Amino acid sequence: MLKIINLKKKLADFTLKIDDLEVCKNDYFVILGSSGSGKTTLLEILAGFRKADMGNIYLDGEDITKKAISDRKIVMCHGKYLFPHLSVKDNIGIGIKDKNIREERVREISEMLGITHLLNRNPKTLSRGEQQRVALARALVVNPKIILLDEPLNALDKLTHENLIIELKKIHESLDSTFIHVTHDFIEAIALAKSMAIIKNGNIEQYGDVNEIINNPKNEFVARFVGYKNFLKGRIKKYGEKYIFKGDLDVIIDKIKPQKEGDAILAIRPEDIMLVGDGGCRYHYNRENIFTAEIVDVYPLSLSTVRAVVDIEGTQLVCEVIRSKANRMNLKKGKKVNISIAYSVVLNNEAKSKNKKTNKK
Question: pLDDT tens digits, residue range 182-226?
């Protein structure tokens, strides 16, 4: 549906450079990156608020690079863009000229988003969550092909944040529109996205299906951004039909075969390290990668999970355990446990050259 080719925009401290990016129709596409990485600039170019220095943007095969904002069928949605001198009702309906159609559409969208009680209010009297819903209503009322969401859940309290995630999913599923949502929050991204792009300093590091990116990150930057916490330095060697990572730990690679032998970094998510007590490793996914470890730190991560740091002969790994299991196992400093590495990813040479840090003490 949307295709970006050779897009460049020179900024003060870096250049936004998108060689090739595609977003499918009806996708919920999340662009994930840290502050200042170029996320908002990209949305502003797509909406027509900024002009790119070069490159092309195609929507349904039509080049819209130089089209006016009003002709793009792409709408930017953010509470900070509401007109403070207009009521909520007038803000929502501002994009529709015909009065009768405007009244009907404003009513329909307001009912769908549950904001009819706000229509006569002024935007500055609304909470952040209410402002976001009004901004979304103003975007939806003009039937856009693409809705751009610029950090729509930023700086909200936890309850409002969770409720808006649920609302956004329901709204997207009920519409014939494509959502492009930028955020720095990985949890928010995986809760909403069908597809995802990881951006760093104006460049797309990787994009595609969410599960593919999580399970097969292209490099260490992407891996860290999607939740990998353990990075081990070593080499890949082939023994018969198996590849083995030999380094800080010796780990059999049975999920994803690396393309070649040689130096590598092994990335492991905390939740893919299974902790088992004295009863042995009966419930692990991989019967080969079993190690004896000592707990060196334990602390709560959330109401439902506990983070444990384990030491295996000088190599420390970060694990995540369900709180009820941690309580059953009586996890505490100094306790000996068995661990099984259920899943790991071999990062390519690009990751190795960028960062050679190791967890080895």
Answer: 999 888 999 999 999 999 999 999 999 999 999 889 899 999 999
Distance CA 53, CA 202 (A): 14
E strand map for the chain: 2-10, 15-23, 28-32, 54-59, 62-63, 74-77, 146-150, 178-183, 195-200, 203-209, 230-239, 242-247, 250-253, 262-268, 273-276, 290-300, 305-312, 315-322, 336-341, 345-347
Calculate ∠ Cα 149-135-65, nearest 5°: 50
Q: Taking CA 292 as the corner, what is the angle to CA 247 and CA 254, rounded to the nearest 5 degrees?
A: 50
Both tokens of 339, joined, read: 């661990």
Query: Do 60 and 226 touch, CB atoms closer than 8 A?
Result: no
Residues 276-326: pLDDT tens digits?
765 445 444 446 788 999 999 999 988 889 999 999 999 999 999 999 888
- Residue 232 near residue 269 (C-beta atoms within 8 A): no
Q: Measured between alpha carbons, how far is 216 from 331 in angstroms, rounded to an integer?
A: 31
Which token pair is 45?
């170019």
Note the pTM of the prediction, 2 decimals.
0.83
Amino acid at 347: L
| Identity of residue 129 | G
Cα radius of gyration (the chain): 24
How far is it, in rounded angstroms, from Cα 165 to Cα 171?
10
Element (H, E) at 215: helix 210-215
Number of other CB atoms surrounding residue 74 within 10 Å: 23
d(CA 159, CA 276): 34
pLDDT computed for residue 132 by the predictor: 81
For residue 142, give the 3-state DSSP assignment. coil
Which tokens is 138 given?
A: 């103003």
The tokens describing 311, both together, are: 């030491």
Buried b (16+ CB within 10 A) or exposed e, 264-278: bbbbbbbebbbbbee
Contact 207, 217 (CB under 8 A): no
Q: Report the Cα–Cα distance between both ends of the chain, in Å, rounded.
A: 49
